[in-house]
Design brief:
This protein is mainly α and about 300 residues long. It has seven helices and no strands. The protein has two domains: about 1-75, Helix Hairpins, CATH 1.10.287; about 80-295, Four Helix Bundle (Hemerythrin (Met), subunit A) (Up-down Bundle).
Length: about 300
């Protein structure tokens, strides 16, 4: 059993190498998809490469996290190791904050500076000579070069599916918090019920998000190729949706581990880290709802 004076040093592992290979194959596949798409070529082979990289990453994640779980349940970790996990998760979430800050920054720059300049406003208003007569509005549904970037017919209204999704995610923050308190109280029945409720809310969110995307593409002509609004809309909501998928997978794994009897009232950082991540996902969505859909 580890104590506060010891720090567990794991044996040599293949998982960092597997992760490097998987991530490299994924990025190569993703880059190939974009290049082939821009050149009008078939992307089926490129998507296969991306899928292979994804499978390698899934294999790595299950294997690596499985090793960590076994080590933790074997009593090899000390309080110092627990603190290192907490710091690691904190820095990971901070990196995710910076990731989304970059996309929110791009949205802010386009709305406050670039689009008004093209409309003739500000100290760089001479940019409107590029597209004379362009009217700067936001959301931008009248692109300055409609031949290159066909404008959408309309944008997604804030008070339909986006509002419903906001209610779902905010509610899921409460349910996962109730589940966390149940774990601290060692009330495993209550824990399972509220964690399962959180997963159901997350899955409903993903289904509604997919429905919103289909409506945008099929009915509104709102796509990634719809100019700066379409680009920022799908980059922000799309990456957030990916994070919701990842968070949902984490919640499902936590529920499986709880059914197997893992975690105690005073030793459950795996669950706690997942709850931290889920709250982060919820907060990002609130920012998206306000700055992408409402304002």
């Amino acid at each position: 059993m580890a104590d506060f004076q010891t720090y567990y040093v794991p044996e040599q592992s293949k998982w960092p190498i597997v992760a490097t290979v998987g991530m490299g194959v994924m990025l190569f596949g993703a880059a190939s998809v974009m290049v082939s798409s821009n050149q009008g070529q078939s992307t089926s082979g490129d998507w296969m490469i991306f899928a292979v990289g994804t499978l390698i990453m899934i294999y790595m994640l299950f294997g690596w996290f499985g090793s960590v779980i076994k080590e933790s349940r074997s009593g090899l970790y000390s309080a110092q190791m627990d603190r290192s996990f907490r710091w690691g998760m904190s820095w990971f979430i901070f990196s995710e904050v910076m990731f989304f800050a970059a996309f929110f920054g791009a949205l802010f720059y386009a709305r406050v500076f670039a689009v008004p300049w093209l409309g003739g406003e500000g100290d760089r208003g001479s940019s409107n000579m590029l597209w004379e007569g362009f009217q700067a509005t936001w959301p931008l549904i009248n692109n300055p070069d409609p031949e290159a970037f066909p404008a959408p017919k309309s944008v997604i209204g804030a008070w339909g599916l986006p509002l419903l999704n906001t209610i779902l995610l905010v509610t899921s923050s409460f349910t996962v918090t109730i589940a966390h308190h149940a774990l601290k109280e060692d009330n495993r029945k209550k824990l399972k019920i509220w964690l399962a409720a959180t997963i159901v809310l997350a899955l409903v969110f993903l289904v509604l998000q997919a429905e919103e995307y289909m409506h945008a593409y099929q009915d509104l002509n709102l796509t990634l190729q719809s100019g700066i609004y379409g680009s920022t809309f799908f980059m922000l909501t799309g990456f957030h949706g990916f994070h919701v998928m990842l968070g949902t997978l984490m919640l499902i794994i936590m529920l499986i581990r709880i059914h197997k009897g893992h975690f105690t009232s005073d030793n459950h950082f795996g669950f706690e880290a997942t709850a931290w991540y889920w709250h982060f996902v919820d907060v990002v969505w609130l920012g998206l709802f306000v700055f992408v859909y409402v304002i």
